Amino acid sequence: MKSKHRLLGIDTLAAPSTPAQMRLGMRDFVLLAIALFLTAAVLIFGDYLKRFDQGVYDKLLQTQTRPARDDILIIAIDDYSLNEIGKWPWNRAIHAQLLERLQPAHPKAIGFDIVFTEAQSNSDSLSSDPAQGDSAFAEALK
Question: In whole angstroms, what is the distance from residue 15 CA to residue 10 CA?
């Protein structure tokens, strides 16, 4: 009698002795390969791994968060600002005024998350010359 081997928890003979046993072994191998391929395809091309990764990331952020620092101030352009100052884009002189009002607090850093690509509006409360707003803003940045 031929010696037995264990393959995936199944007792198999060392070598199949008949063509029918060979076909059966090959069929099992092909089915296993197809199942593994389909599982990998679903995991790779499906959103399952991405959702799992995002879920793990969310849990890590929830457990490893630090309290917000109280020495950081964010000044946002919100609906109230738009109602008070007017529609966007604002004259650069308005940004210059903001910088001037912040200077007495001696901030360590000031950052603008704004791209100044649009033409600036002319506000009645400021100079009608947009170039003066640019100059005022440039001066305030120094």
Answer: 14
Taking the CB of residue 103, how many other CB atoms lie within 10 A of it? 10
Could you tell me the two tokens for 118?
Answer: 């649009």
What dihedral angle (degrees, nearest 10) is formed by the CA atoms of 28, 30, 32, 34?
A: -150
* β partners of residue 11: 6
- Positive or negative: CA dihedral 16, 18, 21, 23: positive
Contacts of residue 75, Cβ cutoff 8 Å, sequence gap at least 6: 98
What is the model's pTM?
0.47
pLDDT in tens, the chain (142 residues): 455 555 555 665 556 566 766 666 788 888 999 999 998 888 788 777 788 889 999 999 888 878 888 889 888 999 999 999 888 888 888 888 999 999 999 999 999 898 887 766 555 444 555 566 777 777 777 7
Specify which residues 5 forms β-bridges with.
Answer: 12
Name the residue type at position 46. Answer: G
